[in-house]
Amino acid sequence: MERSSARGGRAVLTLLFFIGVTSWHVLAQDGPGIAVHVVQRGENLYRISLQYGLTVDQIADANGIANPDAISVGQRLLIPSPGSAEEPILAIIHIVQPGETLETIAALYEVNLDTLGAANRITGTAEVYVGQTLIVPGTEIVSAAPSDVVEPSSTGAEEVSAADASEVRDPTSTIVHIVQRGESLFEISKKYGVSVNDLTQANQLADPSLIYPGQELLIPGVSPPQYAGALPQPIERLTIMPLVFVEGRSARVDFTTSEAVSVTGQFLDHPLHAISQNNGRLHSMLIAVPLGTVGGIYPMTLTVAGSSGAGTPFDINVQVNPGGYRQESLTLAADQLGLIDAAVDAAEMAILRQVMSGFSAERTFGTLLGLPAAAPLSSPFGNHRTYNGGIYENTHTGTDFAAPAGAPIFAPASGRVVLADTLNVRGVATILDHGWGVYTGYWHQTERYVSLGDFVEEGQMIGTVGSTGRATGAHLHWELWIDGVPVDPMQWVSEPLGY
Ligand SMILES: [Zn+2]
């Protein structure tokens, strides 16, 4: 009996995880025969391997590629099984909540009622039950890393009653992560801000490299977000992704309301911008967790004002884990030492803050961002950097790509050029506005092919890599800001924050 109750508790948490983190999943279609992938602009072997749930080595081996960095646009790659030549088929999976009907779900996603029914082989609306997983067809997801569809272990009544996140208040509860295809323990550890060692121990893994898709891993030392009470009216359903926030990374909150409302919010003393769609009933907020945020539990305050007047603020307590960023030592050439100057840094940072603190309601980014350069990463986001033996220190607020001088830079998403300038530290620089408070920056370029005010398409070549400004050699430095706060851009390449 003890074993069965433990399993039940775990299933509840699993379901909670689904509602909160992966209220949609990616469906990958496996086709027979040999699959061929034609390399597109902006792709590298790493990104292609993610698309097919394979490793870089598996694709390199299948194609006799000795140097994985040396692939070219238009090149045809054999994709070993279980890949497919087709684009992965993508869809949103919706878990039916208490009170929902096929009509309300169709309205929620703005899809046709009959289409929704047909996609799920449902002939009558009476066939919809709480806890059921429905495929939402026709949702515009362009590209994502495929992963296995994992079903909740069952949809029994016990789990359904506990599936309402507002009822789960046990502070000792933890999070279960379901391993996706192509995911490593390192990636999972980064996602939750826990160490590989702690994950290995908590799950009694004999070999950390031997994890498999669908495996359930306990994430130690983290708690799901806690609601101070039942969600106030008129909120019907609320999802948080990811369930645990990490210093220097992004998060997203979505919720629906039964009537049109206006939403304001605050997290870590920073106002949150809400985007309301579906006639004021579907609300989304992107959240940046600034570098330097100390790990702990922090309230996210939301206020929902409806027809009955000003709403009452309510708090959701969210856990923030430290990012675990590293130390790095750099050496600048003598003629660049003049650029190590706090006043120069502050002046330039003021420009960036000013340009990247705006908010436009029209969004131009897709589910995932592409990569801006077809090159390996040379320095990750968040490293604490010491220059020339400690005469100066700062934090790396972007990701570096080791691309050679002259290599193309591609826009990872469509957007408007809001800065095209030459700066002291960042050299030839471009900033794109993607809407919803999301901006990306490209520093140290040799050439810039865009001008202030231009609208660029995803995948468009916007410049070339270089070493202008304060750089120790040619590379692309890429940044992503939300509402004036720099966060790790690589999270946006692998996690669907733009669904
Ligand atoms: Zn950099």
Could you characterize what this model shows?
This protein is α+β, with helices and mostly antiparallel strands and 499 residues long. It folds into 4 domains: 2-26 and 93-219, Roll (Membrane-bound Lytic Murein Transglycosylase D, Chain A); 35-79, LysM domain (Membrane-bound Lytic Murein Transglycosylase D, Chain A, Roll), CATH 3.10.350; 226-321, Immunoglobulin-like, CATH 2.60.40.770; 327-494, Glucose Permease (Domain IIA) (Distorted Sandwich), CATH 2.70.70. 18% of the residues lie in helices and 28% in strands. The chain contains 10 helices and 29 strands. The protein has helices at 2-20, 45-52, 56-62, 102-109, 113-119, 157-163, 185-192, 196-202, 342-355, 491-494, and strands at 35-38, 76-79, 92-95, 133-136, 175-178, 216-219, 226-227, 235-241, 245-246, 250-257, 262-267, 270-272, 274-277, 282-288, 296-305, 314-321, 327-330, 377-379, 384-387, 392-395, 399-401, 408-410, 415-423, 427-433, 438-445, 455-456, 461-464, 476-482, 485-487. Strands 18, 21, 23, 24, 25, 26, 28 and 29 form an 8-stranded antiparallel β-sheet that branches. Strands 7, 9, 11, 12, 15 and 16 form a 6-stranded mixed β-sheet that branches. A hairpin with a 3-residue loop joins strand 23 (415-423) and strand 24 (427-433). The chain starts with a helix and ends in a 5-residue tail after the last helix. 38% of the residues are buried. The model is unreliable at 1-34, 83-91 and 139-173 (pLDDT under 50). It binds zinc ion. Zinc ion is lined by residues 379, 396, 398, 400, 477.
